[in-house]
Model the fold of this input.
Amino acid sequence: MGDPAVRIDAHLKVTGQAKYAVDFALVDPAYAVFVTSAVARGSIAAIGLAEARAVEGVLEIFTYLNCPGKLHTPELFSDGGYAATTILPLDSAKIWYDGQIIAMVVAETFEAAREAAYRVNVSYQEEQAMSVFDAEGVETCAVADIKNSHVDPAIGDAAAALSTAAVCLDVEYETPAQHHNPVELFATACVWEGPKLTIYEPSQTVGGLRHGVAQQLGIDPSHVRVISPYVGGAFGCKASVTPRTALVALAARALGRPVKLVASRAQGFTLSTYRAETRHHVRLGASRAGKLQALWHEAYELTSRADDYFVAGTETTARIYHAPNIHTKVHVVRADRGTPGFMRSPLEVPYMFALESAMDELAVALNMDPVELRRVNDTPREPVNGLPYSSRSLMACFDAAAQAFAWTMRDPRPGSMRKGDWLIGFGCASACHPALIAPATARVHLTSNGEVRVETAAHDVGTGAYTVIAQIAAQKLGLALPRVSVTLGDSNLPPSPVSGGSITTASVCNAVAMACDKIRARLAPNPANETLGAAFARLGIGAIEEFAEFIPRGSDPEALQKLYKGSTAIVGGAMDAENIMVSFGAEFVEVRIHARTKEIRVPRITGAFAAGHIVNPRTARSQYMGGMIWGISSALHEATEIDPREGRYLNNNFADYLVPVNADIKSVEVILVPETDTLVNPLGIKGLGEVANVGTSAAIANAVYHATGRRIRKLPIRIDALIA
Ligand code: MOS
Done:
């Protein structure tokens, strides 16, 4: 465990000095406001602009009438490109989904642009929307049939093993669409100076944004610079290039002045990505002693008509417990919707809800303690390829959390732990997330008076990246933390990977450590007691600057070149040839359900987590705590409500899109379980940003069952589910 250092950017943030992307002052900016589609399928029949143009201050209105051919079609992030969707909104009259951009009004003021946007008159050639799982006309495809690179993990003969297993479970689960809703709105400002474009936009991938927008505009990536020093929440929705950025750049170029866009909260629901709804069919077969004989996991994920985005979380669920027979299969369901995308623990949140609920149901069927069921099926090797875990602290996490939670107080009989009008339930679940890593580069500059400057185009999405990067440099160079300054979030800096998949700390810290080691080597031999000043004097220089390229073990030969092109070649997790690398945790919750009103409360949640070398226990704890709170949100509050007739998001605001507030969150206890992993990477760091909202919703569903005897298999669990 490292030092629990206070965030080095905390003071800047709480005093309002930290500049977010659109806080940068621009010279004479114009303001853009989007008009979005009011239908989910069809095309624009006519678009009347006269009334909008008459608004004082309007400079230009961009539509499919004057934009076609101006932008190149982007390639999807998951296909090796940069984009959230291949849809080019103003390139034609076609409507792919409700909320798609159909016009961009640019005016002297935000108010004029907004008023003119209201006065754009659109008529549609509307077709019936087919936007949800059960709509007629959605198209279901097995991912393995449409994507050559996809393999559904499988071993043995699960169907046969299920037919002979002593105890069997056959159940279906469902999770809803969710939207990220970071506090910072989707915003973009573009400034041209001759052929050079500067983009100010909150981003998890300044390199990807640079290259992606350059590709769409057909310009040299070296002419594009992306600046994003602080990000007001991301969670995946700022990890790929969305259509808005190139449009704002186009407007700025056409008008010859800077253009700034800050989208509304409601528009945020359709300008970026979201977590798609999923359905799961899980079958488990076990011996009387609880040993899994067969695991069967088939799933369906909603996607758009344009892009086959999918997460395929069976990649994880097939590998967490020992089972000799495994069958998995993942499908996409193409519908008239925007393309989904990454959202914190994209694979694990929906898929582990299914598996961890099913494990609890199996424990009930076996009359077995659910912790013991996990212990019986614990394994040093993942079952599909037989690779050993580089480290696996799942049961250590269960034991630590169970003890702190006082799990032994649980009477296993459902509905047995009542206090007055309140039914009490205890539930638990496993949390896991692959420990991923990618190439990264960094430049470190040390002066003879002991000032350190670290530069890399990584991102601090609120996680503490500035701080942990500074800590590694301070440690490696033997200097105090305040001597280190860190610059991130600028695509002109040495490239770093997308801040997604919980890869930043492991990837970037190893690059920074390498650069620091090079500096130490240049200072050597430094005899004991030699001051830094004396060492520099001995060498006859005033400063040392070193640059390092860190390439994780198992990377393909092109991985570094991909990084320089703004892509991220992720390795680790189940992709390594020698080990499987996973961060683990265990979560325990108490729910209280009012016997008459069915009001559901979570008075306490305890999570224990292990993630190798913890660079900063304070920021780690904060990530785990935030993850568990989000998990409570997934279980009880959050869902994007979709009108199935119109394919429209109904609760696209903070009043109706429910997230927990302070009154919903009581005791949140985080335990950091020590773990040493010498195999994951030189510094032994496993990512931990995403693991903690995995399994939380299952733990709560399991506790709800324990409190009431009612098994709820569809999220979120609200009062109506318990009254029905
Ligand atoms: Mo995060 S969903 O890995 O950007």
Summary: The chain is about 25% helix and 25% strand. The two ends are 48 Å apart (CA to CA). Residues 379 and 508 are 31 Å apart (CA to CA). The chain has a mean pLDDT of 97.
